């Protein structure tokens, strides 16, 4: 048992998310790990998101105008005072022992990053859970086990805040596909990364979210930003002379690999 629970900053960007705020913050209050600094960044919402947040003992930061998910997360980084930081999406969910499991693992192993499991609501082949704790040091293992080059989702990870600041890691603002360009270098630069059982993040793809919005202009920008992210990933791999698992292998091979390695053993 930890003698003293270190503070964990949880950054929750909200943009017109009034239908999810209460359930998300109730879930935070119900966590078995209690030393949490909840930072809600209201990104120019036009609904009751901010008003609903005020009913909870959390840190509320308001952007006067909508600046996007990356800017909201960067605001959260700047406001965070915890030893560790996690980025939570308001419309997703985590299990009750999520932060307890991640914090214990990252402290026990002295890792820079702890990676929990994820359950993908719409695409079950993207679900990845870990049955046992494993500490990863080599670049090859870190990239293979997290599959970060294919799935950049930043909410999978608990980071040491000092580690992020040491490497100047920020989210590129004005982009939709922002996670990959943050998570890939973070995993690469981590001296140690630990994968954690009993920490599960539930990812839900909602209608009219960033990834499902069907507005023509939105879709066009999403395609452009996807191309930008792929170019970043390619340049990063070339710069550091690394091979990124999961790329250019075809969907059949990808699905077969998922069947074999759905659960890390």
Number of helices: 9
Extended strand count: 11
How are helices and strands ordered from N to C?
EHEHEHEEHEEEHEHHEHHE
Q: Quick one: CATH superfamily? A: Spore Coat Polysaccharide Biosynthesis Protein SpsA, Chain A
Q: Indicate the CATH topology.
A: Spore Coat Polysaccharide Biosynthesis Protein SpsA, Chain A
Output the structural class.
alpha/beta
| Rg from Cα | 18 Å
Q: Tell me the span between the first and last alpha carbons.
A: 25 Å
Q: How many domains?
A: 1
Mean pLDDT comes to: 91
Overall geometry:
globular
CATH class: Alpha Beta
Q: Can you give the helix content as a percent range?
A: 25-40%
Strand content: 15-25%
| CATH arch. level architecture | Alpha-Beta Complex
What characterizes the major β-sheet?
9 strands, mixed
In a few lines, what is going on in this structure?
The chain has one domain (8-264): Spore Coat Polysaccharide Biosynthesis Protein SpsA, Chain A (Alpha-Beta Complex). The chain is built from nine helices and eleven strands. It has helices at residues 18-29, 49-53, 69-79, 98-109, 139-146, 161-166, 180-189, 216-240, 251-260, and strands spanning 8-14, 36-43, 59-63, 84-87, 93-94, 113-120, 129-130, 134-136, 157-160, 193-203, 263-264.
């Amino acid at each position: 048992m930890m003698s003293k629970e270190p503070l964990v900053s949880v950054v929750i960007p909200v943009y017109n998310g009034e239908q999810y705020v209460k359930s998300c913050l109730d879930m935070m209050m119900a966590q078995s790990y209690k030393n949490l600094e909840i930072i809600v960044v209201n990104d120019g919402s036009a609904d009751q998101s901010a008003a609903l947040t005020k009913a909870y003992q959390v840190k509320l930061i308001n952007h006067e105008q909508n600046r996007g998910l990356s800017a909201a997360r960067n605001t959260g980084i700047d406001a965070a005072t915890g030893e560790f930081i996690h980025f939570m999406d308001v419309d997703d969910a985590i299990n009750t022992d999520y932060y307890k499991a991640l914090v214990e693992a990252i402290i026990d192993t002295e890792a820079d990053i702890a990676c929990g499991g994820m359950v993908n609501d719409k695409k079950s082949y993207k679900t990845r859970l870990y049955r046992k704790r494993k500490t990863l040091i080599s670049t090859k293992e870190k990239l293979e086990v997290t599959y970060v080059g294919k799935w950049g989702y930043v909410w999978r990870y608990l980071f040491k805040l000092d580690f992020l600041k040491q490497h100047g890691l920020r989210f590129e603002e004005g982009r939709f596909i922002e996670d990959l360009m943050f998570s890939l270098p973070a995993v690469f630069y981590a001296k140690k990364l630990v994968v954690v059982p009993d920490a599960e993040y539930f990812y839900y793809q909602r209608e009219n979210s960033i990834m499902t919005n069907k507005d023509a202009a939105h879709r066009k920008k999403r395609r452009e930003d996807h191309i930008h992210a792929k170019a970043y990933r390619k340049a990063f791999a070339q710069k550091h002379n690394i091979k990124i698992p999961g790329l250019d292998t075809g969907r059949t091979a990808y699905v077969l690999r998922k069947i074999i390695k759905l659960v890390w053993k």
